[in-house]
Structures are given as C-alpha cells and as structure tokens.
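Review this:
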Amino acid sequence: MNNLERTQMPENAAHPKTEIEPVKGSWRFRFRSAVQPSSLALGAAVLLGGLLLLVFGEDPVSAYSAMIKGSFGSRFAIGETLARAAPLALVGFGAAVALRAGLVSIGAQGQVMTGAIGALLTALLFEDAPSVIALPAAAIGGAVFGMAWVLLPALLKAYFRVNEILSTLLFTEFAFLLLKFLLNDPLKPPSAITPQSVKFPANASLGLIWGGTRFHYGVLAVPVACLIFTWWIRSTRGFEYDLFGENPSLARGLGISDKRVIVNSLLISGAAAGLVGWIQTAGLLNRVYVQIAAELGFFGLVVAFLGGARPLGVLAGAVLFGALQSGGLSMQSAEGIPASLSDIIQAMILLGFSVRYAPQIADVFGRIASRARPKGRTVS
C-alpha cells in the first residue's frame, strides 16, 4: 500500500500498526538507513580512545574496565547513569517529533532553562499546597514555559518561513540572559554569593528512589515519555506529521495543514525540554543555577539523530551518553585518568557520525533551507 492510499483511509478505519515507509531516495530513507550502523562510530571512537591511552602510557583495558564499572558496576553507578541519561532521553524524544516532521530545533538548551524557571515559579506559587497538587503543577509549569519559549520561533517558521535553526538558537541566548538576570536579583536568596535561585519547595520536590544515589523519581518520566512517543508514531496524527516530513507537497494536497504541523511539533519539543528543566530542578539540584542546562539541549538533539528519531534508538543513545559521562568520572577517581577522556570519546562518536553520514545530514538541512525560501523566488 503506497503513501497516498494509506493517507486516504477513512478516519474510522483501523490504523495500521506499521508507520509510513520512506520513499527510496528521500532524505528520510537515506537518513534512517544511515543511522542503523551507528555502532560502527562507537567502536571506532573506543578504539581511538584506547590508542590515546597507550600514547600517554595508560592501560586501555584498566581504563575501560573502570569506566564500565563506574557506569553499571554498582547500584550507585546505575543510578548515576540513569540520572544523566533521563534528561537526554526526554530532550531526544521531543527533538525526534520535530525531526520526523522535517524540522530541526536546536533551542532545547534555552527551553530547559525556561522550563526550570517555570517549574520553580509554579512550585513557589503552590508552596502551601499538598504535594499531590504542587508536584504535578510544577511539572506542568516547566512544560508550559518550555512551550512558551519556542512558540514565537514556531510561529515565525509557520507564517513567515523564518529558519527554525536560527530562531531557536537566538532564543537560547535570550533564555541564558534572562536566567542570569533572575538568578542575580529577583530569585537570588539574600545569603547567596554565587548566582542561584531560592530553594525548590519541599512539597514539589522529587524524592530519591534509591537512597545514596541520584536516581530520583523524575527518571520515571522517561519510560512514560517513550510509551507516549511510541503511541504518537502509530497514531493518525503522528502519521500525518511523518507524511509532512516525507513529502510536504503531498501532505498539503491531502489537506494536512503545514502551519499546524510546524507549530505543534515544535511545541511538543519545547514541552519535553521544559520537563527536563523541571526534573533537573526538582529531582537533582533543588535550585536553579546558571549552568542548569549544561549541554543537555545539544546532546539531546544528538541522541535524537543517533537514535534515528525512533523510541528505542533515542533511549539507547541517551543511556550510552549517560554511561560515558558517569563512567568517565569513575575512571578518573579509580585510575587517575582525566574524565575528559569520556568527552573525547563522545566527540569522536559525533565526529564519526558526522563524517560517515554527512550527506544525509546535509540533505535534512537542505530540505529545511529550501522550505525557508520565499515562494516564487529562485536561487541562482
């Protein structure tokens, strides 16, 4: 059954369990076929990392053993890996929704910041409420603030063809400046020396699942989000968004609103990033700091790319990067090898992925650039 036939199915007909099959030669087909062997990039990165260790007189076997042990060798290690993987997975799921619709948002970094602000302000508003009200209210506040921060770029893209990569990147800088202002004056406690917010209210905080670890209840949002994302892919609305990302002209011809697809998919990605701001504040830090987003937004997008914008792929990529980060710290304490080695391995994975799949990635961005050109104008 081809795309046209499947899209013209009656609304009351049973929706097929399989998702849209990409047309051979399209950017989705080439990109999906490219990300499947991404383990090759991981293997090359590990090999090059081992060679670097040998050059500097270190034992690669001991170093990698310490890294693996620091990632999965104990309850504390597993908790640390999952706590680091959770925000990457949530950002990745949101970014994947946009990617499947043919959009690339790199503003998750700013949306995490504004989500943290929104979660804190909402929690302060419900400071005297019972936890059963305050906790979900803080989560909703984080998601809403994340959505609000991407709303203007989404509207600019939908109605004025403003490139979402540039606008979301610019709004990330705005978010950073706003966060610095708030943490240096309005939200800063009188006794604080460094920029930080007041303490997150206890009635809205996320407790620890395992004592003595950083494995908190916010991590449980990941399997829930994974199930929702899986359902989304198999839903009629998700099918329409996939079709728009695959063939915008066909989608428009079948009555699918490009403005609705663009705005909604970017709002979903913003909500996911805003939730990350909530779990980081309420589950780990108990305050908002300037560096609360760290590099979560950018690595979350990388995870979405590496995972092929598919649920289990995104989840596996998030766990991989979470393990590299937690294992790197353990390797430093156990073997005296700088934790920056794990950063080098992550960079090599990204480099290998970029080099191997540059044509596919360039095709994605080329599609976006072509949509941004004003209608009726040709490029010489």
